[in-house]
């Protein structure tokens, strides 16, 4: 076993290269050290110093001494450091908490600029310091809890009766976590994922591990008499004293689902104890009016609920299926008869609650969820017994569900039920109900802040129904009623969002008794409540997702070339990579390229990054509603893939193999390759506009994945069509020379410095010299199109001339070869080598005019007739998040949304603000929604503050700022303009409705990682 000093050393090695100094007036380095043995709340100390090593020695020394003195064995160690800070007045801080959902405050807090008294986000939430009670939905300063924890943490009193204008400081932190195995996990900083480890995409194995963990927790809650210990409020280790008999069978059902996957003895023993209590203690027998025998689950208050019987049927049917027994069929029939007795024979409607004494109706309707669970229970029993009575009851119920538009409830049980109903009775009306149940709910699934595991079950059951429709030509037209790409994106997002409801040890360690809740699942807005029925929902959802992943993997894996793709033979791929087919493809096998996991398409070979564990082989993924298998796996270790019915190509080095394939694809391409260099939306728009214009002269290939590294460029090259006339790629790699030699562009368009070059701390000329290495991959006589307006023009021009390239310039400069004279509401007036040219763009903003003349210059450099491209310009529309203009209907009117959410950096942010300043409206109608610009390095905060002049010059009436880095800008401008600041996109979205009005022109601009694009999608989807 590793020692604690080994854990500290491992964390130090991880931190020393990434911790950056915080600018004055704050301490340059602030480190929080937290340790727990799992039995008690983490002990936290923090250290501050001008140098990292000084802060490290101080904090590590204190925490190591505490571990020794307290005899801590196998400690959990977490270290956080402050990477950003923003002042805020005490009164304003408390006021802003009203806009934050309780327990969703995701920043640390310091009470002085020296951070002498400071708390991390985990300390604040785990000690309920910003939580009042369950009746208040938003965050609130809890004076008692604050003072209590501060006394324990600092051994002194913290007085919170502060003056209203007293500044406190919001802290953005990032951390690492390490246990006795010395594996260091990097933790997510701010945002909805904050506080937990950065986990790779879920695989069948990792999903199963989560199921096993949750089921193990549930098994521990089954007491000797078969009853469940209902749950805990972990902040102070308070047990939930109440219980709900209806929850008992639903939790039991989830445990059986898990046991079916794990076959663990302790889980089975707990299931049998709980089942015994259900059958002997909770279910009662009755004789109905027609003399038949029925059974009901009886709850406290002598109530019989429709959902209670349904949950019993689901649990017992699953037990019969999983254990291959028919022992429970007589009781199942009685429970099902009880459900049917609650159904109106004429309308199909169910009564929801009965009096247990005489079976009279107590409440006709309570929740649509009851209807969905009852119908699903009967369908599961029909699948087990094929008794036509149960199918007939469900069909009768759906007459009522359809007539009453129950799909509007988006109930997950109804989704599960209709999926199973269509397998036995595939009528169009049932399929349409299932589609309606999910189609209008995708934005909710994508944007809901709470984890809600039932949403995953909703999506997975709908996915199974979509798969049915794919194989039914007569019904396939129904798929037009659903955005299948968005559907699958929402499904994957919701599955991975469940990771935020798992009690990772790095989160559990801050609560009163970590071992009680670690490895379970929680409901954050309910005081991090851990309750068996909540955990059961996570287990069921993840078990279903595990099965979904296995089904994708089990599909036939032989690939064939797509009509629009490259065609790689098995021999060619092995020869280029120097690899060996360990599992050979079938005769005539073809692949359309190689790809990363997240961009897998039918016919492509998937490769695994070598820095990741090779335990999770891939065979297939879902894309746009169709299950599409991989053609093969490219790997260094074939062992994990040998039994997956997929060809396996073993290579000495995966990255080198991908680079070799990319270089081979480029060598074999006979068309013209164009590279566009710059950053943000400028280069993206030019690349898209150029590809659109070149389509006049032939097919154009464009990459679809991240090309910021040579390996990303390489795999994209392998997938691009060999028969195309042109390839257009954006280039901005930090390894520019290697990328240039791989791509070897015949034309390079330089719109400005690349994002990679802008991260350098040197002068812009030095950055330009780094970017100008793109020309070293070009041959004399190739074309260079240079932006005449950028300060670094001379540096680029000198490098292009040294390589003997043909230079064409563009811009507003008087000496530009292609000069932008005017841009007025889409009308572009330009001079091309002294000749006037006019064209129209279907896109707003002067920067679009600049992009247009860049494309004209590129066409001129390739000696193509410009007149032929005028029409494509008129039809060009910016792609998502790159400046598209949308009309959003709201409150009886509409407003304009300029969607610039694809990415952001200082130059593209200023261009977007200039676009807002040109909006054809009164300044009182301008709204700027700006999110953080990410990945700007140590100078990130300064870049955000430097936006102030351009922001104010755009004359916005309202400014909505989002993210920790925008907090400082808000502090600067709040006295000059109506400014609001939000911690993250979710908090912004909750307040958005009251801040936008008909007639507004709204600019939305941020880095992609901020998530502002989700907000834009929600707005665009408004009816």
UniProtKB/TrEMBL annotation:
SUPFAM superfamilies: MurD-like peptide ligases, catalytic domain, MurD-like peptide ligases, peptide-binding domain, Six-hairpin glycosidases. Residues 896-1007 form the Mur ligase C-terminal domain. It comes from the Bacteria. One of its GO terms (molecular function) is acid-amino acid ligase activity. GO terms for biological process: carbohydrate metabolic process. Transmembrane segments: none annotated. InterPro entries: 6-hairpin_glycosidase_sf, Mur-like_cat_sf, Mur_ligase_C, Mur_ligase_C_dom_sf, Mur_ligase_cen, MurCDEF_CellWall_CoF430Synth. Keywords: ATP-binding, Ligase, Nucleotide-binding. Residues 681-858 form the Mur ligase central domain. This is Mur ligase. It comes from Variovorax paradoxus. The lineage of its organism: Bacteria, Pseudomonadati, Pseudomonadota, Betaproteobacteria, Burkholderiales.
